Structure formats: C-alpha cells, structure tokens
Amino acid sequence: MNLKEYALIVAGGKGTRMKTKLPKQFLALSGLPVLMHTINAFYRYNANTEVILVLPEDDFQLWEELCVKHNFKKNIKLQKGGDSRFQSVKNGLSLIEGEGLVAIHDGVRPLVSEDIIGASYRLAAVHDSAVAAVRLKESIRMTDQDNTKAMDRSRFRLIQTPQTFKTALIKQAYEGKEDASLTDDASVAERAGHVISLFEGSYENIKITTPEDLVVAKALMDDRSKT
C-alpha cells in the first residue's frame, strides 16, 4: 500500500544563540533563508510531498514577505505554533487526516539529503517509526556532583531529524500530557508504548543554532554545489 507522505517542519526558534533579532530559520544561507533550503530538500525528494510548516503566528507576515522577495511559490500548509515544541508539533499534526507517513523535521536542518528523507519514509512504512541518528565520534563521561565515569560511546547515538512515523501512531502519542523531559518526537512516541527504530543519519545533517553552525552549513552547501 502506498501511503501518503507528509513533512511537518517545525520552525519556532529565536535568534538568542545566534545573537541576532532575526529568528535563525530566516537567516540567509547561500542566497536563501535557512527554512527555504529545508523545505526545498523535501520537494527535491518528492514534489508531491505535502508540507506543513509550523511557525509562531508573529512570524507569518515575515514569512510571507520572504516568499515574495525570493519568489518562493510552494504549496505549503501554514499552521500556528504553540508555546512549546510539543504544542507546535501537535498543532501541525491536527492538519493531517487519514493514514499516511509524517516526517517531523527541524526547520533549521537545511542540509538533510533526499536519501535520508526517502529512507525515513521507507523504514517507517515497515517499522512504524524511523528516526535518524549518528554514532558518537568522541569519548564521553557521565558526571554527578563529585565524580565522573567513562561510558561506552558505542552504546549511544546522537538523535537527529527527520523522525518519521505512521500518522495514526504519532497523533495518538501526542494526545498524552505534555512533559518537558520529552525533548523530541521519538520520546513522545516511546512514552506511549511504541518501539523506536533508528537508522543511519548523516554528520552533515547539522542543526543550525549558533553562528559557527551557519559557517559550516555554507561550506557544506558550497561543496555540494561543486559535485
């Protein structure tokens, strides 16, 4: 059965760590706002992907102005965000009806590849969930107030997005009570009793949160354009 594919892109960040008044998802990267690169990645994967963009309501006008400025004409469903990421994702999910697969993705991960997006949908269709993750490169230690302890880094993964699920599963999971300790969609689904399936992400699939990240993203994007 071919399941309809949705992309729920959450972009509620501010410019705090960027030390700028402009929210990080709207900062320029190789000629376009970061968020437009992210959306374009899903359309490059499949032009028929239904994209739901969740933004703070205060950013709607700015987004519309940027779309005009960059002649960005995509058929996107715009949804108002909530006071937290949990509420924003839940609001976005409310626009989805019927069976399908939804890839929930950070608006500030513009370097996600079509291969990773495609793998997330294929694997979620089989396993109900598919969460991008990468192995740790450096040694890690666990700390408490008085001691530190070396940990086996091979047992840990850094979690990325997309985090892709069958729509009924993740919508049901988000009916639960909000909990600040649940920092991503996989945690919400796991609390609801679902097993989380990981797949290999990419070290290039960075999340832009600091000025240094923007520099790295531009370098990676420039390198891709040469190939």
TrEMBL record:
Catalytic activity: 2-C-methyl-D-erythritol 4-phosphate + CTP + H(+) = 4-CDP-2-C-methyl-D-erythritol + diphosphate
Gene Ontology biological-process entries: isopentenyl diphosphate biosynthetic process, methylerythritol 4-phosphate pathway
Marked site (Positions MEP for the nucleophilic attack) residue numbers: 153, 207
SUPFAM superfamilies: Nucleotide-diphospho-sugar transferases (SSF53448)
Gene3D superfamilies for the chain: Spore Coat Polysaccharide Biosynthesis Protein SpsA, Chain A
Pathway: Isoprenoid biosynthesis; isopentenyl diphosphate biosynthesis via DXP pathway; isopentenyl diphosphate from 1-deoxy-D-xylulose 5-phosphate: step 2/6
EC number(s) stated in the UniProt entry for this protein: 2.7.7.60
Keywords assigned: Isoprene biosynthesis, Nucleotidyltransferase, Transferase
Protein name, per record: 2-C-methyl-D-erythritol 4-phosphate cytidylyltransferase
UniProt cross-references to InterPro entries, sorted A to Z: IspD (IPR001228), IspD/TarI (IPR034683), IspD/TarI_cytidylyltransf_bact (IPR050088), Nucleotide-diphossugar_trans (IPR029044)
Site (Transition state stabilizer): 17, 24
Function: Catalyzes the formation of 4-diphosphocytidyl-2-C-methyl-D-erythritol from CTP and 2-C-methyl-D-erythritol 4-phosphate (MEP).
Residue intervals passing through the bilayer: none
Sequence similarity: Belongs to the IspD/TarI cytidylyltransferase family. IspD subfamily.
Molecular function GO labels: 2-C-methyl-D-erythritol 4-phosphate cytidylyltransferase activity
Pfam families: IspD
